[in-house]
Amino acid sequence: MFDFTRRDFIKTAAALGLASALPPVSGCASKSNAKCELLVIGGGAAGLSMAVRMRKRLPNANITLVDPAERQFYQPGFTLIGGGVYAPDQVWRPQSEFIPAGVKWIRQAVTALDPAKKIAVLGDLTKLNYDFLVLTPGIQLNWNAIEGVSRETLGRGNAHSIYDFEGAQKTCAAMMAFVKNGGRGLFCDTHTKLKCGGAPKKICLLTEHLARKQKRRDAVKIDYFTASKELYDVPFYTPRLKEIYRERGIIVQCRMKLTGIDTEAKKAHFEKTVVSTIETKDPKSGEVKKTEQTQTSRVTESYDFFHFAPPQSAPDFVRQAGLGWREGKLAKEAWVEVDKHTLVHRVYPDIISLGDVAGVPTSKTSAAIRKQLPVAEENLLALIDGKTPEQKYNGYAACPIVTDYGHVLLCEFDYEKKPQTSFPFSLLDTSKELRSGWWLKVHFLRPFYFNWMLRGH
Ligand SMILES: Cc1cc2nc3c(=O)[nH]c(=O)nc-3n(C[C@H](O)[C@H](O)[C@H](O)COP(=O)(O)OP(=O)(O)OC[C@H]3O[C@@H](n4cnc5c(N)ncnc54)[C@H](O)[C@@H]3O)c2cc1C
């Protein structure tokens, strides 16, 4: 198993020509002498990277990062823990390794925010004033929104989720046992926007391949339920993904929303929506009108092994501070109301938000953050210097869908859902799963995250 040091990583990337895919080093960019209090809430993929970048660009600012987490997790690795490819210790490093000199780290959670007064309140009731705020607390996983489930009881009744570090480890053991013992494996996603929408599909496809590898495919039945109306909604990649599910004999059902799990009885409860189109003819004009009718019903499914994703939202303090979208599709879960191009808050222009919490109509992935970072960095600097933020994010997101142990469908797209290939694979057909995508996913992206992205590059 490769385990790159930072130097190995940079040498390998350069040798393979991947350096061209790496964004320029922000240390070379211009600096601002502005003095200000810059507060960063949340030090994950987005917040930590922003703190490092802004430290380089704002030598005279006081930069404070608030985050209670002692560990920095590479969450895309949770899928590979679930699949038995990574050991748990490969996906995290102590947060202290990444905090740059000159950034004050407060190991607490923000519990309240007053954006009009520019004050954040911490768990111990300390109040922090800021001039500018980077709002990056990621996603809140609402396990309790599924009846019969809590984070603490994950794994009970063989109901598992890789959306949690310990949960991913339990998933791995349970998936191996399921393949050995046979039965029905049921996989589903959730009805809210979710981090890495591909993750529930990946663990499903890995389980199916594991069963084939171990000559146990006949002993297992595998079903995939999605709450969406389609298995995937990026037209360039959807046909092949659907074909893969068909080839593997995995039955897909759409518009199935998980509502509860009876872990004692090993039954999952869903709300099933059926949409039908009704045609009516206007008796005078003869014009045919089509209207959609939806019908919902409760459905209960038995399983032997169950994998699910929890409903997700912005953290409560974001909603309570009134920083979420006030209307539209992104309002219900209170995703932060930012301009989708500049990432600046639409009501409070001293707040910039990126990463999973940001209310932008694209997928929530760290790959998206990689492209949001230079935009947020330049625009924040412009705001601090009293200029107009002009950099624009195009909605780029990527989701490497692991289709088996050895292949990945490297989905990269923008707001228009047009493919956006960023790695030097242009001679390959990226609408199909690739072996090189597997190498990238398993060996390249994790060291890229720890050694490059979080270092402010
Ligand atoms: C199973 C799984 C698979 C994934 N697969 C992929 C993939 O293949 N490719 C990909 O690109 N992405 C993938 N992702 C998504 C990716 O991990 C996220 O998009 C990314 O980590 C989001 O970064 P973020 O900084 O917005 O949030 P996070 O990295 O989650 O960081 C948020 C930080 O905020 C802190 N915080 C929270 N609340 C508060 C508070 N009140 N006060 C202070 N701090 C707070 C937290 O402690 C945390 O450190 C996957 C995620 C999961 C769970």
**Stretches with pLDDT under 50, minimum 5 residues:** 14-21, 23-27
Tell me the CATH architecture of the largest domain: 3-Layer(bba) Sandwich
Number of strands: 22
What's the helical proportion of residues? 10-25%
| C-alpha termini separation | 25 Å
Average of pLDDT = 93
Whole-angstrom Rg: 23 Å
Kindly describe this structure:
The protein folds into two domains: 22-139 and 314-394, FAD/NAD(P)-binding domain; 143-271 and 297-307, FAD/NAD(P)-binding domain (3-Layer(bba) Sandwich). 25% of the residues lie in helices and 25% in strands. The protein is globular, with a radius of gyration of 23 Å. It has nine helices and 22 strands. Residues 41-47, 66-69, 75-76, 78-79, 109-110, 136-138, 162-163, 195-196, 199, 315, 317, 355-357, 364-367, 369, 398-400 line the site of flavin-adenine dinucleotide.
Tags for this model:
457 residues, alpha/beta, FAD/NAD(P)-binding domain, five-stranded parallel β-sheet, 9 helices, globular, binds flavin-adenine dinucleotide
